[in-house]
Amino acid sequence: SSGINAEYKLEFKRQQLNEFFVTHKDEEWFKQKYHPDESVKRKDELRDMLKKRVEVFQEFMEQGKFNELTLDGDKQDALIKVLDSVVIKLEGGSDFDITVLDLPDPEEETKEEED
Q1: Tens-level pLDDT at each residue, the chain (115 residues)
Q2: Alpha carbon of residue 74 to chain centroid
Q3: Closest Cα partner for 28 from 15, 39, 13, 16?
Q4: Burial class of residue 85 in the structure, from the number of CB atoms within 10 Å of its CB (0-12 exposed, 13-18 middle, 19+ buried)
Q5: Measured between alpha carbons, how far is 40 from 45 in angstroms, rounded to an integer?
Q6: Whole-model pTM above 0.85?
């Protein structure tokens, strides 16, 4: 009896797995996770993204961009600028692209003119 029960459970699980596969096999997330080519490609992409993060972190450390940085509320502008710089670098931007963060904020200028 328990042998038949175990066999039934095994077959039931097999059917559930098959249904899951058939339902999701064409979905992007499923391919990325389980398809041999896609999952290897995805792992490579993730590894490259991680390497880029480390490179940007090391570059900013060497440039001393974290030296004066604190997490105090009154220093939030400096923190935001560093975080925005990181995003620009991660997206492939250059040091020149980061200079845009030094430009005055058009929204702030508009508010001052209205006052």
Answers
A1: 678 888 989 999 999 999 998 999 888 888 878 888 887 888 898 899 999 999 999 999 999 988 888 888 788 888 889 999 999 999 989 888 988 888 887 776 666 666 6
A2: 28
A3: 39
A4: buried
A5: 9
A6: no
CA-atom Rg of the chain in angstroms: 26
For residue 2, the model assigns a pLDDT of 77
| φ/ψ of residue 99, rounded to 5 | -60, -20
CA distance 95 to 85: 9
Please enumerate in sequence order all residues whose Cβ is within 8 A of that of 71, keeping only pairs 6 or more positions apart, or say none. 79
d(CA 56, CA 87): 9
CA 43 to chain centroid: 13
Cβ(65)–Cβ(81) under 8 Å?
Answer: no
